[in-house]
Design goal:
Elements (H helix, E strand, L loop, with lengths): L2 H8 L11 H11 L6 E5 L5 H9 L4 E6 L2 H14 L5 E5 L13 E5 L8 H11 L6 E9 L5 H7 L9 H10 L2 E8 L2 H21 L3 H21 L3 E10 L2
Parallel strand pairs: 1-2, 1-4, 2-3, 4-5
Antiparallel strand pairs: 5-7, 6-7
Length: 248
């Protein structure tokens, strides 16, 4: 099975593609306090949880969602229909780094998708390029080291020691890129556990209901992911979502 399809299946019961719950998501969107007729962009929108909830909260806003996954974009469209916001949402199947906007945005999101740009620094540069000068806001979600990772964990994650900073260093990296931090949400252990149990469990149930090559591949992916989480990065890798404002 393709990676995009596996990810879509795994997020079936947790459409927020990051270890953050509905309450944290809603609180961050409320803190944005977007202006009338705001324009919103989500780079790597996945199943579109941030977009559909933002459009429901700000009833005169419009939004663009960008992702390479056809199943995820289809799920976003269905959710937008169910919430009555589809007329204010445009979806684009294209790499986030290649998206060409038709104007600046009041809010740009990239939560749990910095890999689409090759890392945090390139993500922040791309987000900044899409933002309205001075008043533009960004919501960026990124991992950080809760404690220094052991060398064997770095090997298992195929990561470098400086791929993430600690929490203070992550905030500093974002502010060095020309942003001020105006709010944030640090994912709790309970949010991480909910996300990981949902990811692995939803994919496992699908696999058991679909015996055969696809089911076998999905089950193997779920088990490998669960083992890496439980015996590797649990309590080592954290996640923070920061609300940022341009400082120029």
């Amino acid at each position: 099975m393709e990676r995009e399809q596996l990810s879509h299946l795994a997020h079936g019961d947790h459409p927020i593609s990051a270890p953050i719950g509905e309450e944290g998501l809603d609180r961050l969107l409320a803190r944005a306090k977007l202006p009338p007729k705001a324009r919103i962009l989500d780079l790597g929108c996945g199943e579109g949880a941030w977009l559909t909830r933002a459009l429901a909260r700000y009833p005169d806003a419009t939004a663009d969602g960008v992702d390479v996954s056809e199943p995820a974009l289809a799920a976003t469209a269905r959710d937008a229909d169910s919430r009555g916001v589809s007329d204010r949402l445009r979806l684009h199947r294209t790499p986030a780094a290649a998206f060409a906007a038709d104007g600046p945005y009041d809010l740009v999101l990239c939560v749990g998708a910095t890999h689409a740009f090759g890392g945090l620094a390139a993500t922040l540069a791309a987000v900044r390029a899409h933002l309205r000068p001075s008043s533009g806001l960004a919501l960026v979600g990124e991992g950080f080291w809760e404690r220094p990772p052991a060398p064997d964990l770095l090997t298992r994650l195929d990561a470098e020691p400086d791929e993430y900073a600690d929490l203070a260093g992550t905030v500093e990296r974002m502010e060095r890129a020309g942003f001020a931090t105006v709010h944030g949400h640090t994912s709790s252990r309970a949010e991480w556990d909910e996300y990981e149990w949902s990811w692995t469990g939803t994919l496992t149930r699908w696999a058991l209901a679909h015996p055969g090559p696809d089911g076998d591949a999905a089950l193997a992916t779920a088990r490998e992911h669960r083992e890496l989480w439980l015996t590797g990065y649990r309590d080592v890798l954290g996640f923070v979502t920061l609300l940022l404002q341009r400082t120029d």
